[in-house]
Amino acid sequence: DAGITQSPRHKVTETGTPVTLRCHQTENHRYMYWYRQDPGHGLRLIHYSYGVKDTDKGEVSDGYSVSRSKTEDFLLTLESATSSQTSVYFCAISTTGVYGYTFGSGTRLTVV
Amino acid sequence: GQQLNQSPQSMFIQEGEDVSMNCTSSSIFNTWLWYKQDPGEGPVLLIALYKAGELTSNGRLTAQFGITRKDSFLNISASIPSDVGIYFCAGQPETSGSRLTFGEGTQLTVNP
Questions:
Q1: Residue A18 clears pLDDT 90, i.e. is over it
Q2: Dihedral-angle region of residue A102 (phi above 0 means left; psi in -120 to 50 means alpha; beta otherwise)
Q3: How near does any CA of chain A get to the CA of B103, in Å?
């Protein structure tokens, strides 16, 4: 495997509850990213990190927050889950964008 | 933000046929990448292109970086059933640093 693990792989949660998704890497890559994948929209960037405690917003960041306290872990939190956040979430890592990203296997989140 | 127009959205072909898909943008890109996503998995990098006009092959796959730096295409020759999946183009815009922009994907179905 490429050294990137997402957990959980599947989760069902209720509207209004907080949810945290975890991305763990063993590659010591500087950059980490959270994307969501929805039919007809491809992959859309939620947040990204360019180092420990250095994060920035992507194109669809509303309703999401992130934290990176260690190089190897990048957490995505939905403060109060909504049905519109039902999606497949992918984490990716890279040394630099020029060489492309390595993706995790995804987390399928269903908000009911 | 930057947008990539990927076409076609879906393709249904017979085993043995050749396939062509492309991505275009109104902005200049420094890097073009092509990914494949199998069901239930994250995208996996197929080909990376770094220079305008560059033509690169990976087995039955060939991709080119357009001379205007605003487009790229991917060809698959002699398709086989395991080529089934979603193919994404991705580009690194001139102004985005390490972040990639993704196309919406082409769903490929290969009939045996």
A1: yes
A2: beta
A3: 6
